[in-house]
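User: Please run a holo structure prediction.
Assistant: Happy to. Please share the sequence and the ligand.
User: Here you go; the ligand is magnesium ion.
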Amino acid sequence: MLISEKLAKAINQQVGNEFGASLEYVNIASYFESEDMLHFAQVFFDQADEERDHAMKFVRYLLETGAKVAIPAIPEPRSDYASAEDAVAAALSWEETVTEQINGLMDIAHEEKDYIAQDFLNWFVTEQLEEISKMSTILNIIRRAGDNLLLAETYVVDILAQMVAAEGG
Ligand code: MG
């Protein structure tokens, strides 16, 4: 095995965290769609797909390093949001938590001098910077927009397209 039992266990837990994030994003997207904010709904449905991709990246890593895949129970995601601001603040807080989780995995990889894992986890470290930056931007736009959420939506779609272009994606 190219991975310690400790790291394999922590990564299995992270698979659950990423799937959990995906589920919460489906709830957030659904909240926006039910409020007829279809652009925001699309942003969060896309985000839900991204989180599933993250979970699968971790699954692939476990398989490639010869570890057992055992997905843990996923806690029920939050589904009640008081406002657009509340929903996006929940997303930002998720991303902050995920960043701590990724840092925790990196701590183990450093303790164990597991350079393969460090190289693999670096991708997630950069990804978290992008996710937090994206969610803070959306939250700031919503706060500034006040009651003018329809304008905020089109502006966010525009900004996200620019972010994707800047990343070369
Ligand atoms: Mg993620």
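DSSP finds five helices and no strands in the chain.
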